[in-house]
Amino acid sequence: MRAPVKPVSHSGAFRLMAAAALLCLPLAAPSWARTSPPASATLTPEADLPLDPRFSADRVKADVTFLADDLLEGRDTGSRGHEIAARYVAQRFAALGLTPMGDAGGWMQQVVFQKTERLDAPSGVTVDGPSGSATFRHGVAALVSTNANEAKLDVAAPLVFVGYGMVDKRLGLDDYAGLDVRGKIVVALRGFPADLPADPGAYLVNARNEIAQAHGAIGVIQIDTVASARQRPWDRRLLYAAQPAFTWVGPDGKPFDETPGIRAAASLDSEGAAALFAGAPRSLAQVLKDAARKGARPKGFALATSARIFGESRSSRVTSPNVAAMIPGGDPALAGEYVILSAHLDHIGISPARPDDPADKDRINNGALDNAAGVATMLEVAHVMSADKVKPRRSVIFLATTGEEKGLLGADYYARHASVPATRIVGNVDLDMPVLTYAFTDLTAYGADHSTLGALTAAAIAPMRLTVAPDPIPEETVFVRSDHYMFVKQGVPAVFLATGFGNGGEAAYRYFDEHFYHQPGDDLHQPINWRAGARFAEANYRITRAMADGDTPPRWIRGDFFGDLFAPNAPKANPPR
Prior knowledge:
By secondary structure, this protein is of the alpha/beta class. It is built from 15 helices and 21 strands.
């Protein structure tokens, strides 16, 4: 699911209850990109867009119909419904004659998760300072992350404001300069400065807790800027207040934890944020006014307040599978290299009942477009590719992941515990929440400008009268918020493919985001264009084959931020002219 609110990452035991971003300037379009047509342009009819007859709208519809059925109860990670979905996908792989790539020669890679649920006990943030003491309750004015390592969380410390909480020499950022945060709780603005490129800015948002830990902080409190509050209102974030936290458990039996030093994490609404700045050298209003200016980067300073972050939880373990299969490569020289086409199979299950809900209220989050449609696309690519008389030169792995909605966890586990040598994985295309309610004429390839996958994608889909458009929503930090990013972190060039904003796509996306995203309305009652689903499958088939058949594998662009960060020693390609 690529739309707003998804957690951008997990920090082991910690996950903030909702992701956020700050509006930022669009990236300059690379040379291979084409802009979407203006909203006033005449829309292209579906019938005028070509479709290879090998790709079937009916097959796509059949797969989505099964995976989004009420009987699967929203395919929550670790649920019976998700297990049924996983077995369905495995059976589809088997029927196509693919090679199983799970555990012990099977289709499933079982992933153990540690699940941490909040107890019905007081939880929140208490702020003490010159104006007295005030407590902001979780689920009302605060969102407090659980800590699997501390069932009775109770962390108190002085506060230090750290601006956006970002440090990166390459970008000239050091929000911790001159600040002593050792043993303290840092207060950070959501998002990133508007003059930063979107994808590196998104990376730094994702790494905020790691940066705080590196400087000795023991807690992080995030507060809104004017822009982030407008983009994702507090009331919408509260919808996720009851969600449990997850992290995967390694083969050694230990839960994965990127930031064990950050004992407590929370967010506060505007009233709570103002309380943090009581008696401070600068008021919250002054800081927010500064942050709203283009290019501004508010400086940090010690606050006159302290905070206590508290709550109680319990942890348990659940198991849920990734499903993996392969078409072996046909070129002996390249068959030992692997291209991965991935899509997450899980969704968010059944929403808890509210006291004022009618008895017949639909609470099943079916996830038809998020992401049964992505899995159906992957299955259709596998169907057509398995029938090809000439097999791809490189091996192609089809991966249906679990735990994506919990923080990209299934993909993270696979990327770190792959069923093939990790150093031989050369590229990834991820399919997540294609909005298939209109006749799309462009695709957005999130992250494509970081590697040669940008030019490859544009060339592969050109025969379909499709173009590649620049990221239309850089403020949403999409690049770090879907499964492909877990492969990027392991140094693998990757893109996330989504239907674009052209030909009415923006209106379709906005409507879905407002009315159906992570809601029961994401079901088969939507006006889904099944032919568009078949065309999306064809586009991804073309891209995957181009990756698998190229004389050279995908390469990071020389000097690219992510290539230098995650694959510093890998061969690089010259920037496109």
